[in-house]
Design goal:
There is one protein chain. The chain is about 75% helix and about 0% strand. With about 70 residues, the chain is mostly helical. The two termini are about 30 Å apart. It is built from three helices and no strands. α2 runs antiparallel to α3.
């Protein structure tokens, strides 16, 4: 998911996205362990997507509210 798409989500949406990405990353790791993973670059992509989403969560929590 692109950063621009992630920025449109609220904190709860981002946390749900992180959970989903972590599950996907776990599944990829299991596929790698059982020699079923063809594209090992997916591991790096999901790991970075998790970091990207967590960074946006931290930014949104640190930013003052616009209310």
């Amino acid at each position: 998911m692109k950063t621009a798409e992630l920025r449109q989500k609220d904190v709860a949406g981002l946390q749900a996205e992180v959970k989903e990405l972590q599950k996907a990353h776990f599944n990829l790791r299991m596929q790698k362990a059982t020699q079923q993973l063809n594209n090992t670059a997916q591991l790096r992509q999901t790991r970075r997507a998790i970091a990207r989403a967590k960074t946006l969560i931290a930014e949104k929590q640190a930013a003052p509210s616009k209310e």
